[in-house]
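User: Hey, quick favor. My workstation is busy. Could you predict this chain's structure for me?
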Amino acid sequence: MRRAMQSKRRIPEAVWWLVAAAFFTSFVLWSFAYYEDTDARRIRNRILEEFAVPCDPETTLFEGKPVAELVEQARSGSEAERRSAVCRLRCVYEGHDRLVSTRSRRLGEEARRWMLWLVERGYVSQRAAVVLPPLILALKDRSAEIRVLAAVTLRDMGAAALPGRGALRESLNDNDARVRLAAVDALHHIRFETEGLVEVVVDVLEHEPDPASRAWAANTLASLGRAAQAAVPALEAALQGGDSALVASAEKALAWIHSGEAPRHR
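Assistant: No problem, here it is.
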């Protein structure tokens, strides 16, 4: 009788398998969550470390001279000096002490979103605090080339350039198509925004006589991805043009838009 009662109390083997499977699944899910949380903390901490790197314009040197001299050159130098200074301010932000031709490694999308999250909550990169005022001022420079360089530099800074968003929005009305396109690129890269940008790019694509600017417009629409759905008719019309670079860029843009995916940033 005792054996019979013990037999009745024995937990079926199938239940043990279910318990083991539930435990294993919980462990796997916890591991993934722990890894993602750890990875996010690592990205955030790396950005905060970069933000905390000191940059005193009076004592930080670039090419052997205080950064303050470079800032002043960007504000009030000759056109050649202002152009040179804007290029060098990008290097200052990236932490170089001399002009380098190659850009630093671009941040991945998750890192860019973390940077935006931090900047929106008041965290400030010390290097960005030094270079942003002259770069924002350069968006109003009388030279279109310098205005383009300033917008491209702000784009490369990513979310750290968020304080320049208002000036970039104003640049969407610039009389030079290249400046408008560079401002669109910057706004989308800094804050992932698309509102009001597609219309600006389509206007360039449809009305700008310069084939290079129209190809740039098509490439910009490609970077906007599915958000540029309204630009499909203009891109299809561009396929009928005779410029090979424009046609190739329009084909790429249409492919990204129709794929429904967000392309990687250039």
